Amino acid sequence: MPGILQELLEAKEPIFSLAVRQLEAASGREGRDVQLIAEIAAKMRASTTTLGLDPNDTTGRELYAAQMARMVEDNARVAKIIGGSDPDSVTEMVPLMVDAVQKLNISRECWVLKRSVAKRLLKTMPPKKLMKHLGYRSVDSMLKHENIDEVYTALRFSEGPEWLNTYDELFKTVTPSDFETREISIVVMDHDKYVDLAEHFVEKKFHNITHTKEMGTIVVVPMKVDRMKGITLKSLPLLLHYINEVRLYSAFFKLKQVQPNFGEIVVNTLIADPANAAEMVGQYVHWRVIQRYFGKLKDAEEHPEAFEPHVQPEDLHWRRAEEMLAMIDPEMKFWLEQDYVGKMYDGKPLTFNLMDVSLSYSNGESYETFYSYHFRESLWNELFARYMGTKNLRDQVLNQLDNDMIAPEELTV
Length: 413
Fold this sequence. Notes:
Layout (H helix, E strand, L loop, with lengths): L1 H8 L5 H13 L4 H19 L9 H22 L8 H14 L5 E5 L1 H10 L3 H7 L4 H7 L2 H11 L2 H11 L7 E5 L1 E4 L2 H15 L3 E4 L4 E4 L10 H26 L5 H11 L5 E3 L2 E3 L1 H8 L18 H4 L4 H8 L13 E4 L2 E4 L2 H9 L10 H16 L2 H12 L11
């Protein structure tokens, strides 16, 4: 059975099968991998049927064409619902998308760097290239007249790797007292000021949404084009996705605030995003998986003592981008709980992951070049989260979080 998951994940063998066997043994042979495979197959059949195709007699190329046709309909409908008349107009749709997200009744609280501290750090180490670009001779003048959230995001576009590496060393000095609780902010960067600086980012990422975890900021980056195919369903899910991302790392930083090397942990997380928040039978587990599991628990009584007193149930709560999108347009429920659903066609996984499908549509990818990156990440996370649902493995993870990572050889399997 692991062979199906191995193909979908493009995982290395025999390492993957060995890892699954170890997880199975530690969980009490519960067959979580078999259950997941069966669920993926059932959802794949149901979604294919909904698109008007016979799941027993459909080629990958036919299914991909149907997905692209569905994207055309969804993109136009969602754009209309939020007040747009042209779903591919960048200038029209960007403010409407931001407004739609701002109106959603969702959790927005995050624990992030104080803006006063961000300014203090930049005064210590002025970003001279950005200052020159914006026409300022002093960093004080720039910080007085410019939006700090906007400036802070622009650093990655303007200063270059050498400055950023030095700044990271400075950032290691931050302490928990430099952080505060506030709401996530969504910033639309000034087009004229930043469009040239951001050009390389847009070309590299093929989209115009980014975020700054430590500042709790989601940013719409300016583009030189006025129109972009599928901009509504390319950017709107990303805006919603990054709300989850900011809150995800906010909860992680809250958990780690008791550590003496807090600043180093934050910097290392921002740079490398290490996947070693815990281990399960020798397999590293990303904090994203831990939050994915505990964030879905409905009963506050199941909130682990290992998270207290700093991380509360509301910090762990999260909604998939598709769930939030369905709050705007109920017909988008079609994509809900599909982020880890896919099937092998012609040697590669064709997926119902909305992020992959919408980006493939917007970027005009052919059947030979469609995306599956977000799908693979979601499937990995789903697999580990399901094993974390077994008591033995859940206790392993919680013991490590409570004791700030114990040695793997000390874990009881």
